[in-house]
Amino acid sequence: MNITKNIGIINALIRITIGLTILSWSTAKMVKFPWRDSYLFIAICGAMKVAEGIVRFCPVTALFERYQEMEQQTPLALGDGSNKTDVDQFLPYNPS
Known about the structure:
The chain is mainly α and 96 residues long. It has helices spanning 9-32, 38-55, 59-73, 84-90. Helix content is 67%, strand content 0%.
């Protein structure tokens, strides 16, 4: 998988800012309530957003772009009506 920049600079700055905010909030809560695992999960999500902003690569955006490219390249497999054999395969035989 080739990692190229797929988010803009403004988007990256917003991700860094929000990620650091979430990370600081969750670590402050973890100090108060260390037995809760949900704050650890939120801290990991915030750190992931900071990393996405620094690297300027979002894996969810990359998956969405790849899906859009595949959708444009391949035609519909079923139901497009372009071939009569497609219809014959799925319709039952009716002798009447």
